Predict the structure.
Amino acid sequence: MEERREIPPEIQEKLLILQQLQAEAESIQKKIFEIEIAESELDKTIETLEYFEGLEDGVDALMNLGAGVFAYVDVKESKKMLVDVGAGVVIEREVKEVIELLKKRKEKVGKGKEQYVQLLERIYSQAQQIQKEIAEMSKSQK
């Protein structure tokens, strides 16, 4: 019969840290994915506003009412938009201004994403270092 060896406490501790790093990395990856969705939404909105900016008159459009239901609407004023600036406050702005505002938002979102990516890289680096330490400890146990 084969004898089972106990895992030394030092290795158990390193394995626990490795599991914590993995959980943290998964959480950060989820945040990065959410940021990418937000960036995509901003891109689509900017593209739509640039289309509106090029129109001379109003336009027929579909409005999403939610839950997969859409309504046909006639957009008579396509040169001004209402923008939520936070805290439930909505202001009217020219399309050009809204496009610039959204581009700035996208830039901020992109910087946040960069920070998460850098953090994720540091976590991966830490995890690799701990894996090396575990391997070395395992070799010395034999």
Summary: The chain is about 65% helix and 20% strand. The mean pLDDT is 89.
